[in-house]
Model the fold of this input.
Amino acid sequence: MNNTDTFHILALDGGGTRGIYTAQLLATIEQAFQIRIRTCFELIAGTSTGSIIAGAAVSDIPMQDIVELFDTETPHIFRRRWYRIPLFLSKYPSQKLTQILAAHLPATPLGEIETPLMITSSEISKSDVHIFRSNYADKLGESNHVDKDVGLRDAILASCAAPTFFAPKPLNNFLLADGGLWANNPSTIAFTEAISAFGKDTREVRMLSLGTGHSVNMYRNRRGWGFITGWGGAKLTSYVMSLQSQASANMAKLLLKENYLRINPEIDFWELDTITQLDNLKSLAKRDFEKNAEGIEAFLRRM
Done:
């Protein structure tokens, strides 16, 4: 479907359970155009829940399977500890997410994944960013491709470790947390990779960027603005990630202009672990495909 003169990028936001929106939209694209997502893009970048979908795409797993994963497994992933003491333990144990990823995704080392893949994470012990890359890093001559032996599942677990929701992931002497802390929308880092690592000109880059919902009802004015009473504790994590997504989308649009297609529905405030809106999110995805089908097809076929 791609023209050889263009460099197509798929950028997938984080957003917890709201990732079912992204999975459903991509599943509908696959079904409508009779294609596999992996074959349509020269680079796929994902953050947090977007990294799950990105990992499935490069593993050639049908997107409908990932919709079903969200439908059936998220109630198990986001089941609170009955004994949790909020000041001392993360909201959810990581073991269930680990088991579910093992059941649905391969343990392929990143160095053996042929499709160019980027997964974002945060190195919290050194206040640094961390990007997992598939084997294109070796092919492009990056001598410091330290993550080539890291399994796909482990990279995804690190990217999904949202503060207060899950514990950080220790991996290869790093202590890693959610990439959404700095790249919840990986559009700008994927664009930078296309220019710097693949040597593309800005005019050659086309990017489809999928969000997981932009809340239009995050905060209201109130009298008290303490961490818990005003900012909402874990809600602040969602807010920071949402701001980053918007900033990245704005910058990517300025850089790529009409070559940047961003699809991100307006929603009420639904937390990263909300499981009551899964059907609604799937409906939003189908609606947005109908609204954007012509543009999506033209975007993928653009000369």
Summary: The first strand starts at residue 7 and ends at 12.
